[in-house]
Amino acid sequence: MMVKMIIRNNGSEEEAKDIFQDALIVVWQKAYSPEFVLSSKLSTYIYSICQNLWRKELERKSRLTGEQPVEKGESYDLDKQERANIINKCIEDLGETCRKILTYYYFDDLSMNDIAEKLGFANADTAKTKKYKCKKELDNKIKSLYTAKDFLD
């Protein structure tokens, strides 16, 4: 996906590889910072770093050539939509309870207490444990249907 994003935004495969290498260096540097806390999947974090690095590269190129900088544009939205569709499709394939927990937590921003109450769990810890298992199930489902290459190319 990262390569597609760069190619769709006036880049080449070689530039995508360079950006990816630069992103890995950024991750490496951030990982050594005591304040660093990874709050998403590593692949998501790397992808966002690649987006930011590519945006900076496009701005640098536009200054050198005098062109207008390229906006995020349609292709950025398509990549984002493509990822969302993959995740939504996999969420739909989960059981009803998992679907509700993940939707309530990630899309409706409900607290674990609210989710526990809404779904009739004994307490927030039970809901938290179930959410963890549902996330694992979703992760396994995505991994079984897609490879890392699907997200990087």
- The name of the CATH topology of the largest domain is Arc Repressor Mutant, subunit A
Total number of domains: 2
Put simply, the count of helices is: 8
Global structural class: mainly alpha
The description of the largest β-sheet is: none
Organism: Sporocytophaga myxococcoides
InterPro entries: RNA_pol_sigma-70-like (IPR039425), RNA_pol_sigma-70_dom (IPR014284), RNA_pol_sigma_r2 (IPR013325), RNA_pol_sigma_r3/r4-like (IPR013324), WH-like_DNA-bd_sf (IPR036388)
GO molecular function, one term: DNA binding
Protein name: Heat shock and oxidative stress RNA polymerase sigma-E factor
Folded structure, characterized:
The protein has 153 residues and is mainly α. The protein folds into two domains: 71 residues, no CATH class; 79 residues, Winged helix-like DNA-binding domain superfamily/Winged helix DNA-binding domain (Arc Repressor Mutant, subunit A), CATH 1.10.10.10. It is 76% helix and 0% strand. It is built from eight helices and no strands. α2 packs across α3. The longest helix is centred in the middle third of the chain and has 24 residues. The chain starts with a helix and ends with a helix.
